[in-house]
Amino acid sequence: MSFWSRRVRAAEGEGPPGIAIDVKKHNRPGRDRESRLRRIPRPLAAAVLVSAGFYMLAHYSIVAGVWPVHGTAPGAGAVLIRDAVVFFGWLLLFPLMRLVGYRGSWVLIALPVIIFFITRPSLFQLFSDPVYQARGGVRVEANELKAQRARLTTILRAYDEERQAIVFAGAIPELPEPVEAVREAAGAEGASSSRLISAFSVMLAPLALLVGFTVARRPRVLWWFRDHRAIPFGATTALFFVLALFFVELGRVGGTTPWELFLPIFVGVWAAVLADDTYNLARPGAVLAPRRVLLLLLYGAIPIVPFLIIRELGLSVVLAGSLATMLLVGTRREWWAGLMLVVWLVLVAAAFNLDDRSQTRLQLAIDPYRDLATMSIEEAESWAARMHQFKLFDANILAGGLLGEGPGRGHAETAPNAADDGYITTIAAHWGLAGTLALVLLYTALILQMFSVAARERSAFERSLVTGIAMLLAIPFWMAALGGIRAVPLTGVATAFAASGGAKLLASSFAVGIVAAISHRRTVEDRIAATAEAMHAAPEEQGVRIR
Amino acid sequence: MDLLINWMLRAVYLGLGAGAGLWIVRWVRSNRGRSEERWTVRLAAGMLLLAGVYAIAHVRLLAQRSEIEEGREAYAVYGDPRRTELRRGEVRGWILDCTGEGDRALAYYGADGEGIERRYPLGEAGANFLGGGAGAEERDYTVEALYAAELRAPASFLERGELHPAGRDLPLTLCRGVTAEAYRQLSQTGRPGAVVVQDVRTGAVLAYAATGDRGDPPLGIKRYSPPGSVFKLALAALWWEHGMPDAIPIPCPAEIQVTPRAAIGNFGNVGYGTVQGPTGMLVPSCNTAAVWMALRMREEIGSEPFIEGYRRFGFETYEESPPTDSIGGFWRTDSEAWNRRMTPAPSRIRISDSTGDAEWGQLAIGQGPLDVTVVAVSRFIQAIANDGLMAAPTIEQELASGGAAGERVMSEGTARRLQEAMRAVVDRGTGRAAGQLVQGTGWGLGGKTGTAQVAGRPDNGWFAGILFGPEGDPRYTVVSFLEGGGPGGGMPARAAGGVARYLAETVPQVGAEQ
């Protein structure tokens, strides 16, 4: 034993001199164990702090470097305040989680926050741009003013006095304010309360995670849900059908898209169904029993119907994919995977043969730049309108190249839906291929950690639930990421934590909170079990060994 | 500061990505062998496969950059807000004239009550070539469009990090004053045409002025015409190059019977008796003497030396089908776009062993199956003025200031004889109208007139001149061409003379930068 080790052990008061004692981890003094278990791993803490620094610096860079050149949108200051509030909200989450005694995986908490921190500045730039959300004639006017402002600021920055004298030949003109043009139009329209709710729902995301954790950390809440699944299922499905049939206008209800909020509920109900009947669902013969088939249709197929009614095909794929994966994981039978693959292929083939929109999206992914010479004028105009978005997404990706143009640079705001459908191309414009790959890896790590939590879980309900939530995050992420770069047809689903979408962010934060609670409970229960086991073990295994 | 912040932020992205990658590797290692939860590993493998697909698909898009850009270009007619925003908000470099001074720029920015706009002080004088008016940067043949990439390139390393980088200036050899004067002279004639001024030693184009609408191809580069008697300079050059006697008397009747059915006459059907050698032929621009010389030379040396000689002078020959593809290397430039769009159509001559006497005689006087462009004639005259060394013309100041080696297309002796002959043409021959305009400036002018007949239309007029400095050395070439503006000794000579006078009077200013 080294001198230093002897000093340390002596200070800790462990054992008489000359005798070395090892204490099993679970038998160490409670205070020491508590602090170790609650501590965020250092690399993770460092990553959170670095990403927080990134968030602040990127916002600063946009405010100092982009706003003066392009001007701002009405409410840009409010967006900045909102981002500041949510920033502190996310940071506050970590001490709060420690305070409530969180002992689960910190990766689950840290990765969504890191992803949010590194992607949000890009969305901030889009929503603070004077033109991005403008429409029609206002957009044209704002664009012109923005361009004039850009020219003027560039000349003032880059030209020496001699050149400026030639350009201005007298007084320097005032900087045009595109915000004025947009504000007038916005004033005429009036700010709808739903837009405000949607914009500021972002601030509630950290709270949603905390609530999700708090609710689910007590087993009886989840067990109540499991045992009384018909109640939340019936209420949600009824509300969904009513909204879908009577209140939907262009896929929105009063300007918002609340559909994402329903998904975790349907996934929870499906997890309960699977947990109740896993044994039979794993047997091909038993699956075909009429009552079972009815249950599968009721809880597995009915929730997808309203999505098809409101033509949210992307979300229907997300829900169906999640439910199917839960079935596979719940039963651990490969033939379910084979069967679902066949069903999926049939549905895809049907969609692309029967639905014009799906067919067009496939063609757009494969070859958006069709030869104009082979089309009539009407066909060319129609195709040009359809591929417009892809043309600009591609431009974002090319502008970014390998390392991107920098925060808010790259003119991603010129692409329609750059904050949602094409968010990955916005990241590409700002941070290049390297940035998007980093995001892909971070997201993959988050999903893998959720799988780890599910794999550790011994209860069928919790395991299926975590798997379902993981897929609710994974499927939209891949659909949007691969759709943005034309590797698969674009579906328009939002990615949690990285893309715009208040409902998605709230629902996903709440769902991650549930997963964190399950991870927390498993750690606590495993430790109790290990301690109990040690008490009845042989003396040499009880935790104290004299060498 | 911005640049530093941007790179710091990029480093964060890269660091977090690398950290996530390492975490995933560790996760895979620790979970790979677990048989009890194989589905976890399988789903994870699926996720990693998708991450790989993402990387490949993204790289594929970057690799298809040129195809995508082409596609965007094709669909730009249906609207491209990104392109529009960038174009509207950009600050391109200035196009500077031969002085390189900002206040004499050919294209710059100016502010008025409406905002900041690109300005072209040459107006119509430069619209057809430089740019000017709406869509200058979109039109096919403007410097603004063809050097767009250079003008948009960030002016410095620091500018690269800017949201709207200020573009790099493009210094040209064109002189604002000379170009304006050339256009003024052209406009006064009321005829379509072009004037090209080149520096003798470097081949730099000091002025290019042409009529035509903004969207038209540049007339001096793309329009064909027979050169008329200007081409007699090539005939005389060949005569001397092949050692034919200089002091030989050549008959110059009013008309010469080339074949039993074909005769060629002098302008105005005037005879000059006998003239002395090629110089004697050039001074009154005697067609019949030129025909006599061409036929005599072919008898003695055959047609092959003609073909070879004309090619050296920059005039392509053909036997049956005229060449239509532009020939590369005409301009001295680093711009691929300029080379692609502005290389002139090949000046071409149909000539072969079977060419009959009548056609042979026509070629001698610059008529018949012979098409040239104004810039090709200007380049030929520059070779004469540069003692036989032909320098590829350029409009880029950077290339011009580096000097030009030039390619020898005729001997120094031949070039000097031609220079003397051209001075004689202006002193006492068909180019006197031009010479009178330069008188009193201390400078000298040589030249050759040309009047080309075009079936069914008024004659085209040419004047190809060399401006000699006070010390007697050739300094600039001035070539003017007017469609329907013949004879060459009239309006074309006066237009060229006017430009030559302007040059002579302002040359300390122009010459200092050359």
Give me the secondary-structure topology.
The complex is a heterodimer of chains A (547) and B (514).
Chain A lengths: L2 H10 L8 E3 L6 H9 L3 H24 L1 H4 L5 H24 L6 H23 L7 H23 L2 H8 L9 H12 L3 H8 L4 H13 L1 H9 L2 H18 L15 H19 L2 H4 L2 H12 L2 H6 L3 H19 L2 H21 L1 H11 L10 H24 L22 H34 L3 H25 L17 H34 L8 E3 L1
Antiparallel strand pairs in A: 1-2
Chain B lengths: L1 H31 L5 H26 L1 H11 L5 H9 L5 E2 L11 E5 L2 E5 L4 H4 L15 H4 L1 H5 L17 E2 L4 H14 L3 E7 L5 E6 L8 H4 L9 H10 L7 E4 L2 E5 L2 E4 L7 E4 H6 L4 H15 L2 H9 L3 E3 L17 H7 L5 E3 L6 H8 L5 E2 L2 H12 L3 E2 L6 H5 L5 E2 L3 H17 L3 H7 L5 E11 L2 E12 L5 E9 L8 H23 L1
Parallel strand pairs in B: 1-4, 11-12
Antiparallel strand pairs in B: 2-3, 5-6, 5-18, 7-10, 8-9, 12-13, 14-15, 16-17, 17-18
What features would you describe in this structure?
The complex is a heterodimer of chains A (547) and B (514). Chain A is mainly α. In chain A, 72% of the residues lie in helices and 1% in strands. Chain B has helices spanning 2-32, 38-63, 65-75, 81-89, 124-127, 143-146, 148-152, 176-189, 219-222, 232-241, 277-282, 287-301, 304-312, 336-342, 357-364, 374-385, 397-401, 412-428, 432-438, 491-513, and strands at 95-96, 108-112, 115-119, 170-171, 193-199, 205-210, 249-252, 255-259, 262-265, 273-276, 316-318, 348-350, 370-371, 389-390, 407-408, 444-454, 457-468, 474-482. In chain B, helix 8 (176-189) packs antiparallel against helix 20 (491-513) and helix 19 runs parallel beside helix 20. The longest helix of chain B is centred in the N-terminal third of the chain and has 31 residues, at 2-32. In chain B, helix 14 links the parallel strand 11 (316-318) and strand 12. Helices cover 44% and strands 17% of the residues of chain B. In chain B, the strands form 7 sheets. Chain B has a 5-stranded antiparallel β-sheet with strand order 6-5-18-17-16, sandwiched between helices. A 3-stranded mixed β-sheet of chain B has the order 11-12-13. Chain B has a two-stranded parallel sheet with strand order 1-4. Chain B is elongated. With 514 residues, chain B is α+β, with helices and mostly antiparallel strands. Chains A and B meet through helix 3, helix 6, helix 7, helix 8 and helix 18 of A and helix 1, helix 2, helix 3, helix 4 and strand 2 of B.
